[in-house]
Amino acid sequence: MKNLVIILVILIPFFINAQSAEYNLNSYLSEGVKVPNTHHSGDAWLNFLLEADEDFDQNITQATFSPNSTLDWHKHATTQIIIVVEGKGYYQERGKEPIIIKKGDVVNCGKDTEHWHTSSADSSVSYIAIYGKEPTVWTEKLTQEYYDTVAQKLKANKD
Fold first, then answer.
1. Is residue 104 within 8 Å of 86, Cβ to Cβ?
2. To which H or E segment does residue 119 belong?
3. Comparing 22 with 43, which gets the higher pLDDT?
4. CA atoms of 83 and 28, how far apart (whole Å)
5. pLDDT for 127-151, tens place per residue?
6. Which of 2.40.170.20, 2.10.50.10, 2.60.120.10, 3.40.50.10490 is the CATH number of 27-158?
7. Coil, strand or helix at 13
8. What is the distance of C-alpha 135 from the center of its chain?
């Protein structure tokens, strides 16, 4: 019995500390922070789920765009994975036709591939982007006129 008491006295602090340990938790269900219109038009929110550091060299960011928003042409020094978690949007790589992306789609955008992605004309979109720690390289403004042309073309293809 004495040994049991000694073992409990030794182990109890471990159980107490295990229950009160702080964890770094984020949720993709959170909207994030509204961001200024630097490389996009319309309303956009970013939720920085995980930021690259010395142990993990990928950023994981959730982006949410209101309907009819644009995002400028850009590229990344690493592959970018886009996982659409809500809504519908557009995706295009330079030199290729634009496509509609929707909830459940996963896009693998190659290293140094110039592209853009954002909401569709009639739906917001929310996606999780996984990309390297190097800064995004912004290459060209995506005009509202070009976006409108893409929206009309994709709508016509759908009908």
1. no
2. strand 115-119
3. 43
4. 12
5. 999 999 999 999 999 999 999 999 9
6. 2.60.120.10
7. helix
8. 14
Distance, CA of 58 to CA of 75 (rounded, Å): 15
Judged against a pLDDT cut of 50, whether residue 8 lies above it is answered with no
Token digits for 119?
């909401």
Q: Tell me the per-residue pLDDT of 81-121, one tens digit each, with 9 for 90 and over.
A: 999 999 999 999 999 999 999 999 999 999 999 999 999 99
Instruction: Answer yes or no: are the C-beta atoms of 120 and 90 closer than 8 Å.
Output: yes
Q: Identify the CA nearest to 80 among candidates 54, 43, 117.
A: 117
In whole angstroms, what is the distance from residue 32 CA to residue 64 CA?
9
